[in-house]
Amino acid sequence: MGSMFRSEEVVLVQLFLPTAAAYACVSQLGELGLVEFRDLNASVSAFQRRFVVDVRRCEELEKTFAFLQAEVRRAGLTLPLPEAGLPAPLPRDLLRIQEETDRLAQELRDVRGNQQALRAQLHQLQLHSAVLGQGHGPPLAASRTDGPLESSPLLQSPGGPHQDLRVNFVAGAVEPHKAAALERLLWRACRGFLIASFREMEPLEDPVTGEPATWMTFLISYWGEQIGQKIRKITDCFHCHVFPFVEQEEARRTALQQLQQQSQELQEVLGETERFLSQVLGRVQRLLPPWQVQIRKMKAVYLALNQCSVSTTHKCLIAEAWCATRDLPTLQQALQGSSSEAGVSAVVHRIPCRDMPPTLIRTNRFTASFQGIVDAYGVGRYQEVNPAPYTIITFPFLFAVMFGDVGHGLLMFLFALAMVLAENRPAVKTAQNEIWRTFFGGRYLLLLMGLFSVYTGFIYNECFSCATAVFPSGWSVAAMANQSGWSDAFLAQQPLLSLDPNVAGVFLGPYPFGIDPVWSLAVNHLSFLNSFKMKMSVILGVTHMTFGVVLGVFNHMHFGQWHRLLLETLPELVFLLGLFGYLVFLVAYKWLRVTAASAASAPSILIHFINMFLFSSSPTNRPLFSGQEVVQPTLVVLALAMVPVLLLGTPLFLHREHRRCHSRRRQQPDEDTAGLLDPPDASLASQGSDEEKAGCPGDQEEAEFVLSEVFMHQAIHTIEFCLGCISNTASYLRLWALSLAHAQLSQVLWAMVMRAGLSLGGEMGVAAVVLVPVFAAFAVMTVAILLVMEGLSAFLHALRLHWVEFQNKFYSGTGYKLSPFTFAVEDE
Amino acid sequence: MLEGAELYFNADHGYLEGLVRGCKAGLLTQQDYINLVQCETLEDLKIHLQTTDYGNFLANQTNPLTVSIIDTEMRKKLCREFEYFRNHSLEPLSTFFTYMTCSYMIDNVILLMNGALQKKSVKEILVKCHPLGRFTEMEAVNIAETPSDLFNAILVETPLAPFFQDCMSENTLDELNIEILRNKLYKSYIEAFYKFCKNHGDVTAEIMCPILEFEADRRAFIITLNSFGTELSKEDRETLYPTCGKLYPEGLRLLAQAEDFEQMKRVADHYGVYKPLFEAVGDGSGGKALEDVFYEREVQMNVLAFNRQFHYGVFYAYTKLKEQEMRNVVWIAECISQRHRTKINSYIPIL
Hints:
The complex is a heterodimer. Helix content of chain A is about 60%, strand content about 5%. Chain A is built from 26 helices and 11 strands. In chain A, strands 1, 2, 9, 10 and 11 form a 5-stranded antiparallel beta sheet that branches. A 4-stranded antiparallel beta sheet of chain A has the order 4-7-3-8, sandwiched between helices. Helix content of chain B is about 65%, strand content about 0%. In chain B, helix 5 packs across helix 6 (about 120-130) and helix 9 runs antiparallel to helix 14. The two termini of chain B are about 35 Å apart.
């Protein structure tokens, strides 16, 4: 938990991996997932790197795997999940895997090819028999009996030269979508010297896809050899299957029988082949998943190795990696363990670095969703104060202020609780639905949000918009009635009665917890709540922002920028507290000091606050406390005086520092020249300056110091902060607005649906029947509108209050995450 | 057509336009070309192409890579994209797509006819046909003996039919006639396409008309150049020129009279657009070929087409740019496989 407050210390380490053990070391690091490799070969293109050959071999293998997988899928089988904890294979195992894969793939390809060929053959036979069979069908039989009858006199009468002119046939099968085009083309090309009949046949299994497909069989009768050639060409170009078609019916029948016999034999052979195929597929199913995992790991290792540079002696690889300081011993151990076989052990050593290290914040399943909220805005700078631990409380709380209702909060809490309790069930964990995963990922967030909503619901005293009277109310109507002597006639005349707290016995004291339930009956319920919620929003807002500014202190202290403490945080605090802190004070003071007795002449805070800025006072508005005339102008002057401090302080200070450093360096160039010429000393010096960040800023930084730019930044910051104080305070009023909207909406739902339903049926039976659909409508609308829609809107606003109003006071969010090299598949 | 495409364009074609712009962003960049040129073998080329939008398009090739495999696969990829656009298009964009495929169909028909003339098998030629210009009746082309035969029997149902109006003749199909047929077809095709774009109006016309005008003029120049020293008469030559370009009518008349490259160049000098192009052409040793100069100009126009929104020109431009890119990759691949690196840099970059 300690690491939640700021990101962990991360250092750049140099790993010297002996060439023989480099692979084992990196694969071990991948299993552990501790370090993030830096690419040392960024200038080298992908195909010129050292291990590109190995990567390519892995890719080749993956290609074969893809083929095997596709075959398994096509057979309708699924691959089992591989067991966990498979290590990356040794490089020498690659050969074995490759060989076996190739053999398997070859075998599968052979069997598959055989099967395809057999199927195609079978298909051909089936088509052929269908084509021959179409001659027996009644429609064509009729036309064919017509054919010879008509043609035989024609043929016989001329005799002599036209003896060889007789009807010929082309028969075959074509895909149905081409049939129409074929027919038309035949007609046009042969100018009608043919008779073509097309017929649909029953679906056959397609040899390639295995899906049923219908074909059209056709029989074309024509005269003349030229036309015959044309027809053949055309049928060729349409990829038709053309079969020999004998004219004699008897011969055709024998041919048909032969075909059927052949196809039966073929089917047997096919069955045998398919059995063999399923055996091979079974082997693939067993072997493939572990191989896939292993090769993927191997490829990842080689890709990581590709980022290393080679030492001058070619004896070891040098890798640079980011690693958390806490993990260094583990890293060392792992490297020693995996390189011990090679005889030479791998060495880890820290190297200084100018680049900003990546941010590493370890989370558990509880804190992950809160860290996620912060990271969605921006990953924190290295070692910056992390707002996530505070967000754990403030986020659900601010949400609940806008969502305050015991009933709704309870529903949300129960929903989240169910998810939390079921989180270890595999079915819940592996659910793929995106919306579900979003909710599931934020289950602890929802849990807290629900819990806090119940709490604020009790404060607002609202449960599905109805007040609960847990304790007896602090207001007594009886006392009022007795004291003022309301007669029956008076009661009948007045639709509204007012309770006066100044009358003895009417107001007994504040309600023990939250809002008094009697207010839910009052006409001025809303204006009472508005006043309360508005003031509460301002108080919460100012507190939240002040907290943000105070968190900035820890940033400045940690980074050693002490001047900012005095020149930035202090003016900011004075400005914020002097103006808005004072407002909060006024509110609290009035709550505590003004009683019901003096309510008639109570001063207005609003007028006071406006007058404070105008340096004036209005005679009708009584001062709240003595000395107010002095305190108020002093505060305004103090706050305004802070603006120039904030605007000019840091730039001027930095400018002075810069000049001092500069002149000091100019004074001692003689001492430095020797050091600069001597390389080891220089590196030591730079190392030293790195270590003491607090001291004189680094050389590079100094060289880049431009006064105008610093001024610009500071001016923007100042304007943003000062205007932001006003606008952000106003922004917190959304707490009031949203909670008001939620309360009103749930009240409307209750009054228009549930209460209407309840008052509908006078008799017992009618009410019971009517209430079922009424309650159903109420429940559905409660969940859909009040819980989901309103919940999302409140969530959004809470998010904004955190990102904009809270985090811009101290959080820069300009870092990048440490993404360690790991084999583990991301779970969430 | 109504003016103001921005009001209604997106309702029908917004998705496709967005898609094509995304595809355009995937074209190879200058940096990609620099890396490709450095490749030592085709395998390197493949690895590099994998990091671009081409992705794993060669992953399923088990045989050793050749240039023609790369070419075919790239064409297939373009074809897939194009088919996707086409299948999701509405009128009049789908007609526009049909017009785009027509040029490929013409090329395929001519290719097949030439093949039939040289007694090559249909299968052999089919491989060379551009996949965008494929149609079912295509393979039956070789049964025709005269252009009217071809029209009546085979092409009457294809989108090419209207372009045949001027080419109906009973001449036998020999090599010259086929070439004339191609040019006539192309002329009427480009004129019809031009008319379609002009009638469509709005931004489409503003973008597409200059592109098609340039295309027409380019054909006129190329026809002229190719007809030097052939038996094609000057009158016949003039009938082949597409008449929708900037050169029409005076330029074409002059061009018809031209007898050598110098005269052609003089014709081009009258036109501000073409003058610099012809000046960039070198003579044999240095400078570029006329074809390359034209390609460069085309690329430039097509890239500019993406600066306007709400028009169909982007689809045309994208297809042409992709084709140019494919020519570039094939050129580089050829240079690599033939170990002929001196000319490897003369691809036409798409900026």
